Structure formats: structure tokens, C-alpha cells
Input
Amino acid sequence: MTSGRGGTSAAAPSFPFREGHTLITDVRPRSAKPPRSTPIPPPRRGFLSHVDAKWSPYLFIAPFFVIFAVFGLFPLAYTGWVSLHDWDIGGAGAFVGLDNYTELFGDPDFWNAVVNTLGMLVLATVPQLVLALVLASLLSQKLRGLTLLRMGVLLPIVTSVAAVGIVFSQIFDRDAGMVNGILGLVNVDPIDWRADKWSSWTAIATMVNWRWTGYNALIYLAAMQSIPRELYEAATVDGASKVRQFRSITVPMIRPAVIFTVIVSTIAGMQLFTEPLIFGQGGFAISGGSLRQFQTLSMYMFEKAFRDFDYGYGSAVAWMIFLLITLLAVVNYFVTRKGN
Amino acid sequence: MRKSQPLVYLTLLAAIALSAFPLYWLFVVATRSNDIVGDWPPPLVPGGNLGDNVSRLFAAEDAHFLLGLVNSAFASVTVTVAVVFFSSLAGFAFAKLKFRGRDGLLLVILATMMIPVQMGIIPLYMIMVELGWQNRMEAIIVPALVSAFGVFLMRQYAERAVPDELIEAAKVDGCSTFRIFWTIVLPALRPGAAVLGLFTFMGTWNEFLWPLAVLEADNPTVQFSLSQLSTTYYTDYTLMFAGALVATVPLLLVFIAFGRQIIGGIMEGAVKA
Output
């Protein structure tokens, strides 16, 4: 396929464009121009071009739909079916109706994971978006070296995700970590960050905040730059302060961007997995610490399905995560819309 | 306004310092020996042990780090090429071709864009068992060959970047639809394809949950291998940091080479987490 252009470029007639459509050769100056004398060819034979026009579009979208249906949508839907069975590594067992869910709702480890996930979601999303807003408003001013500044705030997202986990696990280490070292300067006793809920959530949320703040700042920045300058000029004439302008013009105008980032971070936060798993280290990694103090829902699903090989129960967890995400996305949507 | 300029720079520089510091610290520890870990104040300049740490890294048993690197590189490149190609193809069809059911099918793509398909990994795993793809890279690559987000992105891009007259003219000239795609549309989509490609590459490189489920420790991806290090060698900080550094370098290189496009892509609201 690729040889078509390079190999035959000397033989101009193989190129399909013909004289009379100068527009085309203008746009693609690299194509060899056919000789001026070439007559306009007759239209393509009707049947073939008819088949081409009718079926090509379906052929073009087929790869996406086939692969996505088989490896994306089908597994997701089938998760619901598996969750209604006693299903383990040996295969499908008895149909048990909603038994897995009944058990799940009485399972303290499940509720623990729900609380952990939501807690880290809040700790990781709110500071991230507020800081991003501040960063974006700073970056939206006329500054020298803007591209470099933007690349600087984006550095964290090019860090390998497991590497983020490894570095921050060390920074938050009880004995060797820098955070405790700095706290020691103000006479705070060393904190065992892995030991408690609040401390482990803080450490893990720090990783997420660090990784995504700059990314969100750039999304806000793009939205800010599309606000008409006249709005600010008029406000300045009316004597509105910078802070007032930020609150009354900037924030309402970038609302769609805010909604977008809130929904995207919520969906990602509900599936948080890599950072807490790496933070766990050693034998208690998948359970999120010895007392499950930072086990997220995704980790619990993974533990049930791929450590205990209880596919039915694991699927029930997965399906609940899916429902929770959908619920949160809908709530997000309506709350942010209502404010309008 | 003018008076506040230095303050703005200071705040921004502080933010960038915070962004860059963990990466710098990653580099510093990776070049040191283990006895400095925990020193106070911490050493802030690189040492001379990088080579030693990296060779220990590649020699580390049950981490299979080199294999992880090769696996991830292969998967990331393959998936990137496929996602860009299939997304451009479908995006072009949705933006520029007329066919029955087009709007309905586009709606399906929009609706599936936000669906966390990751929650389907248990049946996906069963499919892989049926196909005999457990612990094989096919399991990582094949399900990732297409992306709803990619199709949507390329559709938006094609809508703007490819003039209708151009396609009409080529049709009159008897160009087949695929030929129109290959010679006219694909070159015009190049900037959008670059952004999609970069983010697909980074996303595949960072994939973790699914590889951990379907692969074994003897045939890992790079993130899987790192998690093995952090489980088995968690007291050996310089070894882990060397691994984290080597796993980050490819992404850093991509970023340095294509930073402007990445920023452009995000600023166009074109990229999801």
C-alpha cells in the first residue's frame, strides 16, 4: 500500500487526480502534475463505484465496532451475567440470582473499599482542580517563556505511573522519607504514612494530585483563552477588581471545561488502582495495607477475582463499581448544570 | 497588573519546581548507593552509581525487566499505529461519508467513550483463556487496537481539516473511497493523528491493571515489572529507582520531542485522562 506513492511518482498518470481540478494540486503540491494534455477520463464504471460508495463507509467503521464489541462491550455486559452465578476458576457453577450482591452488601471489606475509594477521590480531585484553576489563571497572563512554563507544569504526566508510586512511596516512607524529614524540622514526630486511613489516603492522593494538576490547568487555560477580551475590558471600566473579574467572568465562562474535568477525574478516581497498589509494597499490596486501610474498589475486585479466583463475586464488585461510576457521572452532570 | 508580574513568575516557578522535583529525586537516588537513603538532609546532587544500579536492575531475578521493556515497547508501538489508523478510517467515514445509520452509530461511540470498560476484565480474562492468550502479549495488544475516543477525536478533526470539495472532486475523477482516504484524508489528518498517537503511546506504556491480571511475572510489561521490583526489592531503593527511571525515559523523550503537540492537543480539549 505504502509503495503506491513513492514507487510510481515518476509515472504521473498513476496518480488519480486530473487536470481541471487545480484546487487539488494546489493542496497537495508534492503530487506529480499530470501532463496538461491528459483528457478528463470517463467516469468510473457504475456498478463498482456504486458498491464502493455504498459499502466502504461500513467497511471503514467495522474494525472499530467489531473489536470494541468483542473485547469491550461484551465483557462488560457479561460481567453482569457472571455476577449472578457461583463462578470460579473451574467454570460456571450454579445460577444463584442476586446472592453475590446480598453477600456483598453485608461484606464489611466491600464497604471499607467504598469508603476508601470515595475518600481518596475527594482528597485527590478537589485540590487538583482548585490548584489547576489557580495555575491556569496565572498562565493566562502575558508572560515570557510561556511554552517552557506550560511544559514544566506538564512534566508529571510523562512520568511512568508505577514510577510515581515508587518515588512517592519512598518520599512518604516512615524512616527514610523526606516528608517526615521536613516535618521533623518543625518538631513533628515521624508519621507512619501507611498505618492509618487518613495518612495513607493523603500520601496516595498526593501522587494523583501531583500527576494531574498541570494537565487540568492546561484544559482550563485553553477555555480561558477563548473568553472574549472585551468582557474584561468592560469590567475594568466598570471598576471590577481582578478577583471579582475572576469570579464573575472567568469561572462561569469556563464552566464546560470544569464539568469535563470533574467527570473525567471522577471516573478515573473510582478506578484508582496502580498508585495504592505500589504504595502497599510487599505482601499486603493487593489488600491495601494489613488492615485494608487503603484498599480501593478496583483492588478489592482484583483480589476477589484474581487472587481468590472467585469470578462470580469479583464480577459483582466490578458491576457495583460500574453502577457507582454511572451514578456519580449523572449526579455530577446535574449538580454542575443546576448551578447555571 | 505590572506590579504583580514578579509574584506571578515566582508562584509559577514554585509550581514547576514542585512538578519537577519528584522526577529529579528519582534521578538522584537512581545514581546513588543505598547507604544514603534516609540521610538528613537528603543528598540533592547525583552520584556515580547509575551504571551499577542499572546493571543490577537488568540482572535482578524474577523482575524480568529487560523483557518488560521490550514487551511494552512492542505493544505501545503496535497499539499506537493501529489506533491511529482505525480511528482515522472510522473518523473519516463519520465526518465525510454518507451512509444509513451514521448518526445513530456516532451516538453509540459517544455513549461508549466514557464507559469504564476496565470493569469488564473478568470476562475478558475468560476470553483470553479460551483463545489461549494468557501470559501472551496478544492479550494486551488485541483488545487495545481500537478506541472510541480516538474515533471521536479523528472525526472532529476530519470535519475541520478536510474540505468537502476535495473529496467530491476526487470522486468525480474516479478515485475509490479508500484511495481518497489514503492519499487525501490521511495526510490532512496528520496533526490530529500525532496527538492521538502520543497519548495512545503513553496510555499503553502505563497500562497496569489488565497486564497484572492476564500476564505472569515471567512475561511482564514494564509497569508490571516495576511493581514486581517494589514488592520483592522494596528495601533496595536505588534498584527500584533505577527501574523507575529507565521506565520513564522513553516517555520523557517523547515529551521532549513532541511537547508542543501534546500541549496543543490538550489545549484543544482533545484529550481525556
